[in-house]
């Protein structure tokens, strides 16, 4: 079994290679962030999940993001933009 090149413990070496390839061609560096907590569902039909993520390269920094599609705690997200934070659910 091949080891994860990013040492994230993921099971897909192709997925990590995809992240590395995208990071080389991007203007802004792509940030990897691990989902630490699912805060709730939002959107008109509940199709968006609001999550708290902490950055892989800086575990002291965490932000809230909206995620479309299935997501659970422990997932690693590839953030193309890492400065903007979602507004909290009411």
Characterization of the model:
- The chain is α+β, with helices and mostly antiparallel strands.
- It has 1 helix and 4 strands.
- It has one helix at 13-25, and strands at residues 31-42, 48-55, 62-68, 76-79.
- Strands 3-2-1-4 form a 4-stranded antiparallel beta sheet, with no helix packed on it.
- The relative contact order is 0.22.
Protein topology:
Layout: H1 13-25, E1 31-42, E2 48-55, E3 62-68, E4 76-79
Antiparallel strand pairs: 1-2, 1-4, 2-3
Brief characterization of the structure:
With 90 residues, this protein is α+β, with helices and mostly antiparallel strands.
Notable features of this structure?
90 residues, 4 strands, alpha+beta, 1 helix, 34% strand, 14% helix
Main β sheet profile? 4 strands, antiparallel
Distance between the termini: 45 Å
Estimate what percentage of residues fall within beta strands: 25-35%
Tell me, what's the shape?
Answer: globular
Low-confidence stretches: none
Content-based structural category: alpha+beta
The chain-level mean pLDDT equals 78
Rounded to the nearest angstrom, the radius of gyration is 14 Å
Helix content: 10-25%
SSE succession: HEEEE
Question: How is the largest sheet built, in terms of strand order?
Answer: 3-2-1-4
Number of strands: 4
- Count the DSSP helices: 1
